[in-house]
Amino acid sequence: QVQLVESGGGVVQVGGSLRLSCAASGRTLRSYAMGWFRQAPGKEREFVTVITWSGGSTGYADSVKGRFTISRDNAKNTVYLQMNDLKPEDTAVYYCATTSRFSSSPEEFYSWGQGTQVTVSS
Questions:
Q1: By three-state DSSP, how is residue 80 classified?
Q2: pLDDT tens-digit readout, 28-53
Q3: Bridge partners for 9 per DSSP
């Protein structure tokens, strides 16, 4: 089973940028699609982005399209989320997870990390 650890969260001002990392151990990520989700206080966990195992295809929620970019380095067993032009509504705990299917549904994902807090201050 793969273990995932997110890092890179923090406090940033509106319009700023952060890059999150999701490092895997225990098993290679090479055969998995990977996704990022987020959960704000009092809200449901929501899909942010997904990437195929090869990195050849990606998908984004409309709310982050054009601002966020997912990428992966299978040699480093790591997935990244570059977040630009951050807005207060991006404030949430961000989670990465593995899936065997290219999906935006949380039910299709497993091996979740513990999350990293992103706070966008105005």
A1: strand
A2: 777 789 999 999 999 999 999 999 98
A3: none
